[in-house]
Known about the structure:
This protein is α+β, with helices and mostly antiparallel strands.
Amino acid sequence: MPHRYRVVDVFTTQALEGNPLAVFPDASGLHESTMQKIARELNLSETTFVLPPTRPDCVARVRIFTPRQEMVFAGHPTIGTSFVLLDEELLPRRADHFVLDIRVGPVPVRVEAGERPLIWLTTPPIAWGRSYDPSVCAKALGLIPDDLLDVPPQLLSAGNPNIFIAVKDKNVVDRALLDQAVLRDLKGGRSEAVCVFVFTPTTDGAYSRMFAPEFGVPEDPATGSATGPLAAYMMRHKLAAGAAGTRFYSEQGTAMGRRSILYVQINGDQGAESIEVGGHVTPVTEATMTL
Length: 291
């Protein structure tokens, strides 16, 4: 049977930059084991499959797979899939607010009108986890302790656990290279897969990279699920302005040749009510897979 899919580049206005995503707008009839095989075949950081919603307040159910496993939540798949649903008129006409049914729970999406629509998701609740030894974090990234800022590396999750490590400048970010053996030592025997997010503050927000080899993604060009927690972490440690209504952006993927811009909107008092992550989407490919 033929199964049509789209490939879009997320968090960019330029084709062949940002984070590529494959979207199957009608995945009815596909078993989850087949979805996983398709994601492995396409070998992008994520592939999404659109199904009828299981919640009455949602317009569609979205399942998200890396080449290795299904994800509870991911940002660029949420935004890229929203673009495809809008572009193919699979949502109510002129929908600028809707909710997607994702494993993490209902995820609100809004569309900011413009020459190129800016699509925003509301970050799911952020959980704060343990802190880590800075010297071991530096070693895991092939750096020295003096390369890090004087703030404790810490695990945060909005569905996907990320260890956030703040460093002194862009050059340090670009030199970082994750050593998986040291990462296992850093985790202290814990089996849960984690991502490692290294960044430096900038005048506009942050310059960052994210490594997720335990999810089958050696390096991710743009990580929407980590950007909300990044904003919360930066605000807590006074690395970014935290006033209500603050907007800034994280530049990610530049070191790997796929520059991505992820916008952050902080709503409410110090972001306590919600943190939104937004980006542009650029369509690239339409194809059919025959199975």
